[in-house]
Amino acid sequence: MLSVAHGPTGALIASKIPNPLISIPIIIASHFIEDYIPHWDVGQGLTSKKKQKKTAFFQELFFDFPLSILIIYFLFQVGRPFDWRPWLGWFVGLLPDFIEFPYLFLGHRNPLLNGFARFHSIVHRSTPHKLWGLLPQLLVLLLVVLLK
Predict the structure, then answer these.
(1) Which residues are CB-contacts of 102 (< 8 A; sequence separation ≥ 6)?
(2) What total number of domains does the chain contain?
């Protein structure tokens, strides 16, 4: 899924379950559950060479990633004192994708993380259809807003 789905999900969980020892495993599990739902993301087409790495990188860096930060800011910070928990949740919600970044964009895989990468690729379900691939992510965002 896009960062705009994973990040807010993590922020919501961290804001509702303030104990990081409990919330962090749930956030990581939520990442894999969301990735199991067929979705479209900026990496769609990288493995089939239908999309260049540079294009996916810029879509992530200049659209998806900053938009996820703005969503967290407006949903969890505006009009409230600073709270680090939604930001920790945002980071942990994106952590599995951060771990995959060196392999996807630089071709480098850390041998210590091969099992993690294998599991991530097993649960990850993509669809090339943007409309059907963005719809579940919009529903995730709607749930985050409703449950906030």
Answers:
(1) 108, 109, 110
(2) 1
How high is the pLDDT of residue 59?
A: 82
Compute CA distances 77 → 3, 12, 80, 90, 139, whole Å: 18, 12, 5, 13, 22
Helix (H, G, I), strand (E, B) or coil at 75: helix
Give the SS3 label for residue 33.
Answer: helix
Domain of 60 in residue numbering reads as 3-147
State how far the Cα of 81 lies from the Cα of 68, in Å rounded to an integer. Answer: 20
User: Residue 39 forms beta bridges with which residues?
Assistant: 126
- pLDDT per residue as tens, the chain (148 positions): 889 999 999 999 999 999 999 999 999 999 999 999 998 887 766 666 776 778 888 888 899 999 999 999 999 999 999 999 999 999 999 999 888 877 777 777 788 888 888 898 899 898 888 889 899 999 999 999 999 9
Nearest CA to 96 out of 19, 11, 34, 12 is that of: 34
Token look-up 């996916």 returns 56
Give CA–CA dist 99/86, Å, rounded. 20
Tokens of 84: 């680090």
